[in-house]
Every structure is written in structure tokens, then in C-alpha cells.
Amino acid sequence: MIYVVIVFLWVALLLYLVMGGADFGAGIIELFTSSPNKSRTRRVMYNAIGPIWEANHMWLIIAIVILFVGFPVIYATMSTYLHIPLTIMLMGIIARGTALTFRNYDAVNDNMQKVYNKIFVYSSFITPLFLGIIAGSTVSGRVDPDATNFLDAYIYSWLNWFSVAIGFFTTSLCGYLAAVYLIGESTEDLERRSFIRKARLMNVAAVLSGIAVFIASISEKIPLIQWVFGNIIGIAAVALATISLVLMWMFIAKGKRYIIRVLAGFQVTMILLTTTYKHYPNIIILKNGKYLSLIGNRGADKAIEALGIALLVGSVFILPALVYLIWSFQKKKGVANNESYH
Fold it and tell me: Which residue ranges does UniProt annotate as crossing the membrane (predicted)?
């Protein structure tokens, strides 16, 4: 049952990165959109993220519950030594959701709309930035359980070049996912060309920040190159991600609406696979050279068994409902748009 729980944890993180990442990326796209085009971008964005933005954080909640119940030592370590970036990320999630709601449904349209807009776009940038920083910190080898001062214990555990580079890479990926998804939501040729340009820029940003991650890993003696290219799985995943990237741009040129989203999600899946496969089942690398493992640091067998059963039963109810939610929104939009973009 432990492997069922681990699979659910990995899939929950993947879905949060792919679906929640595109959600955050919509705000990032708006942040880098010129003022005359912001209203058009917002309209398309609302249509795109409306069906799932409320459900996106479900995947993060599932991941947190799995860690809390199934791997309490790992949960305690992360929530202790990474509590500052975790708090900033959670505050970003709350601020973003609140701002999006108020700027859409506020009964009074006044100068507060500008405040809501700024909160929304900046929290959309900050949240995935710190999500990436947290992810990078777990494998950076900077979490120090033997620290004797505040800076070593709670600041340098996450404030390092490698973790920050991972943060900017994650942010770029979110913007890239959103731009690709929004291409398919565009009903006008001008809008579509605009989102294609944004997708190109975010693609370049993701490549450059990815290079920065490798440079930072070399500088800080983190064996990222070995993790990615030191095994057949990593090499195959990189190759497949590269091929799918080329295919995606070919399909964009042909005006394919759905396949480009699948390919963009597939690329992110391959990236996550390359960065987690080699050091599995170790999820946190400590500064003293030890590891916190999903196998060695799991909870009691009874807790794992109960958690696995709950996840399996819950997925029977949640996944069909989520699919129906997305399908119903897409059907509604299809009728409204009369499939004006093919």
C-alpha cells in the first residue's frame, strides 16, 4: 500500500504543477501584458481558468495530507525548516484567490479594482516562485537539522542560488503552460497571435532559467546533471520532452487546439520525472549527508493502509466529478463560441 500512497503523492504534485501552474501562469501572463491589452487578456483568461481554478488547490491539499498522515517526519522537517517560504506561498495563494474574487464580483467598481489587479498578478508570480524554491530546497542539501542559529536553520535552508533558480524556472513553466492553454481559448486571430508570442517568450524564459538551474547546481556541487543524464529514464524523458516541444510548435502553426495542451502538459511531466526518478525514494536531502526517505520515514503500517484505501476510494468520486466539471464548462463555451477557433 505504501507504493499506492507514493504514486498518489507524485500524481498530486504533478497535477498541481500542470493545472495549478497554468492557473498561476494566467496571472503571470497578465503581469507582462501591456495596459491596452490587459482587458482582452483577462476575458480570455477567465474563460480558461474558470472551470478548474477552485479545484486546483485540491491537489496541493491532497499532497499535504499525504505527507502529514503518511510521512510525519518528512512533514515536520519541511514545515519546520522551510516554514518561511511555505508561509509566503500560502499567503500568495490566499491573496490571489481573494483578489480574483473581489475584482470579478465586487459590487462597486472603483479604484480598489486596481489594487485587486496588482494583488492578483504579483501573487500569481510570487506563489509559484516560492513553490519552486521549496522544491529546490528539499534536494539542495541545505536543510540543516544540526543548525545552532536562526540563519542556518531557517534562512539558508532555502535562500540559495539553486533553490532560487528552481523558483524562477517554475515560474517560467507556469507562464509557458498558461500561454499555451490560452492559445486554444482565443476566439480571434489577433488574440491567438498575441498568446503565441507570449508562449514563445515564456518558452525562452523557461530554457534560460533551466540553464541557470544547471549552472547553480554546478556552483553549489549539487549532482543535478547526474540525476538527469545519469540514467536511461532521465535521458529518455529529456528526449521525449524535446521532441514533444518541437511537435507542439508544429501543431500551433496548424491551429490545433487540444493537442498542444496535451503536449505542454507532457513536457512538464517529463521534467518532473527527470528530477525525481534518480534520487527516489529520498525526498529531502539534508546538509549532514543523510536523507529522509519515503520508504524509510513512512508512518505506521496501519496509517499507510488507511491512507491508501482513502485515496483509492476518494479518487472514484473526485476524478469523475472533476472530469464532468471541465467537460460541462467546455461544452458551454463551445456553444457560446460556436467553435470559432479550430
Answer: 6-32, 53-75, 81-99, 119-139, 159-181, 201-218, 224-251, 258-277, 306-327
Measure the N-to-C terminal CA separation of the chain; round to a whole number of Å: 44
Tens digit of each residue's pLDDT (9 = 90 or more) over 125-169: 999 999 999 999 999 999 999 999 999 999 999 999 999 999 999
> Considering the entire predicted model, what is its pTM?
0.90
